[in-house]
Design a protein that fits this description.
- There is one protein chain.
- The chain has 99 residues and is of the alpha+beta class.
- It has a single domain, classed as Alpha-Beta Plaits (2-Layer Sandwich).
- 39% of the residues lie in helices and 31% in strands.
- It has 3 helices and 4 strands.
- It has a 4-stranded antiparallel sheet.
- A hairpin with a 2-residue loop joins strand 2 and strand 3 (47-54).
- The two termini are 25 Å apart.
């Protein structure tokens, strides 16, 4: 797996931005091959982060342009402030699914 975390500051109403990101941008990712998940974190005070997980780095990097375009079109106030990006191969343990 490959994960990309984007941290934004100056988002204004970070709760609303998170809601919109999940409701509007998340479904656009769902149709991409290798998509594993997308989450938005409201840290308050205009700070938010998004977490996107794909099967491979190549596929994840293809989503970067889509994210940039969506932010520029739908949240122009964030487009002026580039996010801090952390990305890399992902290892971990997932919770078991209840039977």
């Amino acid at each position: 797996m490959y994960t990309v975390i984007r941290r934004y500051e100056g988002a204004g109403d970070s709760a609303e931005v998170c809601r919109r990101a999940v409701a509007e941008f998340g479904p656009m990712l769902r149709d991409r091959p290798g998509f594993q998940g997308y989450w938005a974190i409201d840290a308050g005070d205009g700070v938010l982060a998004t977490i996107t997980v794909f099967e491979s780095e190549e596929i994840a990097l293809e989503s970067t342009g889509a994210a940039r375009a969506w932010v520029r079109e739908n949240l122009p106030e964030l487009a002026e402030l580039p996010p801090q990006v952390t990305a890399g191969s992902t290892t971990g343990v997932m919770a078991e699914t209840p039977a």
